[in-house]
Write a structure and sequence with these properties.
It is built from five helices and three strands. By secondary structure, the protein is mainly alpha-helical. The protein folds into two domains: 14-118, 50s Ribosomal Protein L17, Chain: A (Alpha-Beta Complex); 128-173. The protein has a three-stranded antiparallel β-sheet with strand order 1-3-2.
C-alpha cells in the first residue's frame, strides 16, 4: 500500500530519481527555463522551491545545504549570485509551469518550467507604477514629468556610449 506517500516516483529508483532531479534543477538554474514532461516539471517544482528559498540568505551553511542537493558548484554559484537577488522580495512561487501539448513520439504531456522573475514577457521591467495622489494632476505637469524622464534616460545612454567608445580607442592604441 502507498498510504501517505505523496511524491511522484516517476517510474525510477530513488537514486536515479534524485540524480535526475538534481540535474534538471541545475539545468533550470543555468538556462532559466527547460522543457520536460508535466510530471517531471511538477516534481522539479517541489524539489527546487526550497533550494531557492535557502539561497535568499547567503551563508556558508546554506551554500553547503544547497550543494548537497544540487551537486554542481557552478549551479550553486549561479543560484546565489544571479537568481537569489532577483527573487529576494518574492515570498515563494519561484517557478511557473506552462503546458505545451503532447509530444509526437509517445504523446506524453509536455510542459515548460521556468523561473518567474527571468521572463520579461510576463513581468516587463520597463513599466513604472504611476504615483497615486488624492488630487487630480493637471495634464501639463504629467507631460512635463514624462519628457524630463525621457531626456534623462537618453542623456545617460549617450554618456555610456561615449565612454565605451573612448575605452575602445584606448585599447586599440
Amino acid at each position: 500500500m502507498r498510504h501517505r506517500k505523496k511524491f511522484n516516483h516517476l517510474g525510477r529508483k530513488a537514486a536515479h530519481r534524485k540524480s535526475m532531479l538534481a540535474n534538471m534543477a541545475c539545468s533550470l538554474i543555468e538556462h532559466k527555463r527547460i522543457n520536460t514532461t508535466v510530471a517531471k516539471a511538477k516534481a522539479l517544482r517541489v524539489y527546487i522551491e526550497p533550494i531557492v528559498t535557502k539561497s535568499k540568505t547567503d551563508t556558508t551553511h546554506n551554500r553547503r545545504l544547497v550543494f548537497a542537493k544540487l551537486r554542481n558548484k557552478y549551479a550553486v554559484t549561479e543560484l546565489f549570485r544571479e537568481v537569489a537577488p532577483k527573487v529576494a522580495e518574492r515570498p515563494g512561487g519561484y517557478t511557473r509551469i506552462i503546458k505545451l501539448g503532447n509530444r509526437l513520439g509517445d504523446a506524453a504531456e509536455m510542459a515548460m518550467i521556468e523561473l518567474v522573475d527571468f521572463n520579461e514577457l510576463y513581468n516587463p521591467k520597463g513599466k513604472k507604477k504611476k504615483k497615486s495622489t488624492r488630487r487630480g494632476r493637471s495634464k501639463a505637469s504629467t507631460e512635463a514629468e514624462v519628457v524630463s524622464t525621457a531626456v534623462e534616460e537618453t542623456s545617460s545612454e549617450v554618456q555610456d556610449n561615449v565612454s565605451n567608445e573612448e575605452t575602445k580607442d584606448e585599447e586599440k592604441k
